[in-house]
Amino acid sequence: MKGTRELVKSERPSWLSPIDDMERWFEEVWSTPLALLRSPFWTGKRIADRGEITPSVDMYAEGNDLVVKTDLPGLRKEDIRIDFADNMLTIAGEKKHEEKVERDNYYRFERSSGRFYRTFDLPQGMDMEKAKAHYENGVLEIRIPKSAEAVKKNMTISVE
Predict the structure, then answer these.
(1) Residues whose CB is less than 8 angstroms from the CB of residue 25 and which lie 6 or more positions away in sequence, other chains included
(2) CA-to-CA distance for 159 and 137, rounded, in angstroms?
(3) CB count, 10 Å around CB of 143?
(4) Nearest Cα to 95, choosing from 147, 138, 43, 66?
(5) Helices within the chain (DSSP H only)
(6) Sign of the C-alpha dihedral, residues 143, 149, 150, 151?
(7) Which fold, 57-153?
(8) What is the pLDDT, as a whole number, of residue 154?
(9) 80-134 pLDDT, tens per residue?
(10) Which of 29, 48, 57, 73 lies in disulfide reach of 52, CB 3.0 to 4.6 Å?
């Protein structure tokens, strides 16, 4: 892009970035030896701990509502918790599964479980008192309307 400038100047040359990554990785390994099992340095991404679920979330505006959708297959409504505090939305839950099979020549009993929580900063001017949540077929949808004051503040500026 023509005419762009750096906002922050780096004091180290960009080619040292992989070295910085390695230094951070060694620091983590020496301070917490089990870190090798959680986050390999070559992926750049954190691997979920055992028993942890990380559902993906879609967040978008629709009319005067902020819509938050997440897929939570296998959960019951009772296993989901939604909290609002300090302009933050937290979605949390726990999935438990038990399967028991008894036949003439064998017996199998398996259990699994996993927990998750996701927290999001919400835009200013949301009316938390009028928020609604609906859960159906493994999909949680939360609708949070803008407050009346926020709707009034919206305006369109014409281009001359």
Answers:
(1) 41
(2) 45
(3) 17
(4) 138
(5) 17-31, 35-38, 148-153
(6) positive
(7) Immunoglobulin-like (2.60.40)
(8) 66
(9) 999 998 888 999 998 887 888 888 888 888 887 788 888 888 888 888 889 999 9
(10) 48
Letter for the amino acid at 78? Answer: E
Q: How far apart are the first and last CA of the chain?
A: 25
CA distances from 22 to 33, 39, 42 (A): 15, 13, 9
Q: pTM to 2 decimals? A: 0.58
Tokens 């709707």 identify what position? 151
Is pLDDT at 138 greater than 80 in this prediction? yes
* CB burial of residue 93 (10 Å; 0-12, 13-18, 19+): buried
- How many other CB atoms are found less than 10 A from the CB of residue 144? 23
d(CA 116, CA 132): 21
